[in-house]
Amino acid sequence: MATIRDVAKAAGLSTGTVSKALSKPESVSPKNLVKVQEAIARLNYKPNMLAQKFRSKRSNTLVVLVPDIANLFFAKVISGIESVAQDAGFSVLLGDTKDSQAREKEFIKMVETRLADGVINLRPYREQDALLPRDDIFSVAASSCENTPSYSVRIDNVGASKKMVEHLLNLGHKRIGVITGLKQNPHTIDRLKGYRHALAGAGIDYDPSIVIEGDFNYWSGLSAAERFNAMPSRPTAVCCFNDEMAIAAIRGFAEKGIRVPDDISVTGFDNMDVSKYTVPSLTTIAQPAEKIGERAAEILIGLIRGEPQPVTEHVLPYEFIIRESTTSPQ
Amino acid sequence: MATIRDVAKAAGLSTGTVSKALSKPESVSPKNLVKVQEAIARLNYKPNMLAQKFRSKRSNTLVVLVPDIANLFFAKVISGIESVAQDAGFSVLLGDTKDSQAREKEFIKMVETRLADGVINLRPYREQDALLPRDDIFSVAASSCENTPSYSVRIDNVGASKKMVEHLLNLGHKRIGVITGLKQNPHTIDRLKGYRHALAGAGIDYDPSIVIEGDFNYWSGLSAAERFNAMPSRPTAVCCFNDEMAIAAIRGFAEKGIRVPDDISVTGFDNMDVSKYTVPSLTTIAQPAEKIGERAAEILIGLIRGEPQPVTEHVLPYEFIIRESTTSPQ
DNA sequence: CTGAAAGCGCTAACAT
DNA sequence: ATGTTAGCGCTTTCAG
């Protein structure tokens, strides 16, 4: 393998000049630049990036902590991160934590050991078990919630949820059920807050008996629907805290002959690709997943480069999408 | 930042011994091992992995070339890769090529420049524009097709497609349409081959007028359905080369009042999560996405470690899932 | 089992 | 603008 010394020799120059020719071409005379390029081509020289990173103490790498890469929302955020990172000359190391704290620690160790310069965390912050932020590590939280004590990029979950409930109220619904995520999940907390705000605004009392805890997965949506089915006085609308549970609920209702939206309105959250394909298509909230990733990467790279980041909390616009699954109560 | 020299000094040992204590603890006396551990803890020493990789010439990193990370199937394959890589002490660099050859080249350059030890390629091999395999680079193709000239892990697309068509034939269908992917896509080629084999086996002539080219996306499925709708003698079943187009086709048929499966049977391919949620749920083929990723990672890591890999082509079992979208013609 | 010492390939002063 | 040179922090012979 050719080294920079071989190139220098072949070009009749010093290693220092070759190094500069590669990193700051404008600081090398045109003729020598040509010589260097020729030598590189002739020897098929490929710089050893490992040596380069080591020597320069810059890894130009980000690690992305993601609870589950096989979740489409996260995958889209990552896609946005990748775009920005690539353009800035950064690589992205994938940290699929599979919801394990131990794995999360392993990945954070990568920045402690210089393998990466910073972290983008896709798990929403919870005081009880947060490993980040840390003073010695650059990090930004993406798709986070209210009160995240670090740089963060997110939508207004409270506002989005409130808007969704107001949509139902405006249609004439008075008894609006909920299928939440796990109680302690920050997204659940924010979205539930929005729900309560909307009800309060309409002067409707909060009724915990029609707020059912799910876990963001299909089966929890289905079983929640069954519980609604069994109620003597069923809500006329159900607000689900993600699309997957909403789709499940629709199916759960259908099994008892309850039609959506004629008999009951259902709303989702996330705007999964499929939510426009289902029958009926879903009224839902679209998060700008790629944008969230892009912005998070921009901030982190800025931080790494030592550029001041005046804004700590980036709240991006969401999109409220009305489709077929909601209508006025009969 | 503490270096290995600081640790050596604090422990009253040489750097060589400390280095060994870290990499081959069994080759250091227990008492000295303890001294080293104490010194490490006292100084809060974190080895500089960049130096380590540089010096040892091992990056312990894989790059995954993926056409689109925001495609659930790929995301799942990557999840499998990650699991195996983590357990083997490898990191995975994400190479989201967004279908660009230029980007693909950039990522391959990472192994030329020592940043990574090998590549897993999720884009199926096509002779016209393949950048891999290359003699100087370890690579394995995951989710590939027939005749891939490198280590590969895949299912038997031809067989799966054939089985699907035979299922329809057994139900009594004689006129079976197809919505394919792009013509030159290797998966399209393989699956079309299976379709033709099945027809030939049943003594039915291939009729190109009911084979419509799609592009694996929703809209192409929808417009294909419209073309079927307009046919004087519509097929009684349509075989779609992925779930997304199948779901779209079902919707397209529904818009003209054509019910699935009563009026027409529809099949998918991939077993997306949603394909069991749709109404009707989809008859489809499930690829073992995570397993494909795991196996590909195992092979690549074995290759990197210099272990002989006797098997070049790994064909994994798929699952044939019959749901509600297929039935006998009326 | 341990220590001494060389050096991986590159960058970054510093001189010229 | 170019050359010289001193390492970066670690691993890895090689002696002992």
Summarize the structure.
The structure is a homodimer of 330-residue chains. By secondary structure, chain A is α/β, with parallel strands linked by helices.
Query: What is the CATH fold-level name of the largest domain in chain A?
Result: Rossmann fold
> DSSP helix count of chain A?
11
> What's the domain count of chain A?
2
Largest sheet of chain A: 6 strands, parallel
* CATH homologous superfamily label of the largest domain in chain A: Response regulator
Basic shape of chain A = elongated
Q: Please identify the structural class of chain A as seen in this structure.
A: alpha/beta
Rg value of chain A: 26 Å
Descriptive keywords:
homodimer; 330 residues; alpha/beta; Rossmann fold; 4-stranded parallel beta sheet; DNA-binding
Description:
Two copies of one chain form a homodimer. With 330 residues, the first copy, chain A, is of the alpha/beta class. Chain A has two domains: 60-155 and 288-317, Response regulator (Rossmann fold, 3-Layer(aba) Sandwich); 157-286, Response regulator (Rossmann fold, 3-Layer(aba) Sandwich). Chain A is built from eleven helices and twelve strands. The first copy, chain A, has helices at 4-11, 15-23, 30-43, 49-56, 72-87, 101-112, 157-171, 186-201, 218-229, 243-254, 289-304; strands at 61-66, 91-96, 118-121, 138-142, 151-155, 176-180, 211-213, 237-240, 265-267, 284-286, 313-316, 319-321. In chain A, the strands form three sheets. In chain A, strands 2-1-3-4-5-11 form a six-stranded parallel beta sheet, sandwiched between helices. A four-stranded parallel beta sheet of chain A has the order 7-6-8-9, with helices on both faces. In chain A, strands 10-12 form a two-stranded antiparallel ribbon. Chain A starts with a helix and ends in a 9-residue tail after the last strand. The model of chain A has no long low-confidence stretch (mean pLDDT 96). Chains A and B meet through helix 4, helix 5, strand 2, helix 6 and helix 10 of A and helix 4, helix 5, strand 2, helix 6 and helix 10 of B. Chain A binds a DNA duplex (16 and 16 nucleotides) through residues 3-5, 13-17, 19-20, 23, 27-29, 32, 47-48, 50-57.
